[in-house]
Structure formats: structure tokens, C-alpha cells
Amino acid sequence: MAKHRHELAFLTLAVYHHPVLRVLFALLWVGSLASCGSATVEPKVEHEARLLSPIPACAAVLPSPAPGVQVALRKEYWTIVFPAFDAAQGRLPADALACTGAALLQDGAFSESRVVDRLTDEQITMGGGADGIKAVWLRSHLISENGAAGALALVRTKGEFAYVIAVGVHRGRIDARLSLDRLGSDIVLLVREEGCKGDKKGPCQSLLSVYLVRQGKLSLGTRLALEQMAFGDGETLGEEGQVFHLTASPSFVDRELRVMERVRVLDRLGRVVRWAELERVFIEVGDVLEPSDDPLWTQMTRRIQRRNRGR
After folding, report:
1. pLDDT, tens digit, for every residue of 218-271?
2. Number of helices (H) and strands (E), helices first, in the chain?
3. CB 3.0–4.6 Å: which of 249, 256, 274, 278 could bond 296 by disulfide?
4. Any domain includes 99
5. Helical (H) or strand (E) element with 306
């Protein structure tokens, strides 16, 4: 009976959101309970899931620790998100499905990439959150020396189970940082990529990706620049020697994402010769966050480029 329940752990939550599949699954489950001599006990994994918010999309049974030892998950996230993952070989099959049934590895984010030969916990990026929820990026594919692509997941551990709230994909810098925030009462997953670290002698861009939870899926709500630098060339952008510098400060207020943007233009001596500020407000429209305006960077550089062409 225990083995049978373990095999059904992923299926139980994966069909939970689909009304027709839920009815069929309930009938199958009653039959399986009858074969075990009981028809009145609700599977614990599903009972626990009903008590959680947000409702998970799928679940897995965690390995049993030694008495008095708490399980410290790391490499287990591979099999939690991808049940077909070969832990012994560290191999992720090309056709592996997420525990939700989503074919994440077929997403366009994996174009022009190659899978890592042997996957370990070194390819896992994690970010903490409240209520035992972790943001996890499984960097299964390499794009370049500094770039990777892989599955994103929100995972909550509770007792003997790991509950996957939502899954998606992300493509970006290997050193990206993950965190969680709230948009109203909803969880959002944030991926921050620092492309403007250190000595800024060339064009650069730091990005923030905001993922929304949508019925077991992580949907990219928006991606915006937190910092950006470019240099004037006297032809396509500004005067030669000028530096264009954007900084942005995001904050979540009620059900809005507010971003205060500031662009400064400096001359070759470091003096500010032009600057502008703009607050953009993002609101939920379906599965995305719609901005109130175009990025300030785009507005300013577009005007300067038009001015240069008119000379």
C-alpha cells in the first residue's frame, strides 16, 4: 500500500486542477483503496495539499531521514521537478516532463543550448522565501560560458512531502539571484541578473524578470532593466564621450509593480548634462504585467537618435 501511494504522489496533484481528470482520478483511487482493504481513507498527500495555499500542482514523497535528522534538500530537486531524472547517472532525458506534465524542455528558451553532461546540485540556484517555499532554477543546459537555461520551480516542503506550486523556464546569466515577493496576496518569483557589476567600461545591462503563478505555471509577467549603460558615439547615440546611465528601483504596492526610473547623461568629464525621471506602473492583464509607459531609456535614446539624424 505504501509503495502504491508513493507511485501515485505525482499524479494526485498533477490532475488536481482539472475537473474531469479529478473525477476519474477519484474513481481510480477508490478502487485502489478497496484493493488495500480500505475505501474511506483519503490519500495523505492530497489531504495535505488541500490545506496549503497556493494549491500545489504536484507533489513528491521526500526521502526518509534518520531519526532526529531534518532532510536538507538540494540535489533532490531534480527528481522532485523531473520524476524521470536519472539520479544515479545525473542525466535528464531530452523528453523528460515536469511533474505537472509540462514539456518544459521543448520551450524555445533551450534553443542553441547543450545539456550538461552530468547534473548535480552545482547546477541548482535557489532563493528562500516564507512558509517553507523555495524558488529553484535547475540549470540543465548551457548557452555560453556565463549563460544557462533550465526549469524554474516554486517548491514547498512540509513534513514528508515536497509540493511543487508552479513550474516554468528561465534563460539567463548563470550567476542570477532568485527571490520571492508578493503582488497583493499572490507570490511572484523574481530573477535578478547583474550585468553591470564591477568596473563599467563598456555597455551593460542588469535585468529583473518577474514570474507570475498561473495554475501550476510560472508565466513571465515582465522583464525590465534595473541598470543600463551605453556610450555616445557622435552618430547613432549622443555625442562622443557621453555616458548614458539608467537606474531603476522596483517595489510591489498592493496589486501593482511600481518602477521608478532615472536616466542621467554625463559628459566626458563626468558632469551631468541631461537627466530625467519616470515612474512606471505595471498592472496584471491576463498572464502579463502591462506597463503604463515605455521604458524611460527607450524614450530618451529615441529622442536623441532622432535629433542626431536631423543634423
Report:
1. 999 999 999 999 999 877 787 888 999 999 999 999 999 999 999 999 999 999
2. 6, 14
3. 278
4. no
5. helix 296-309
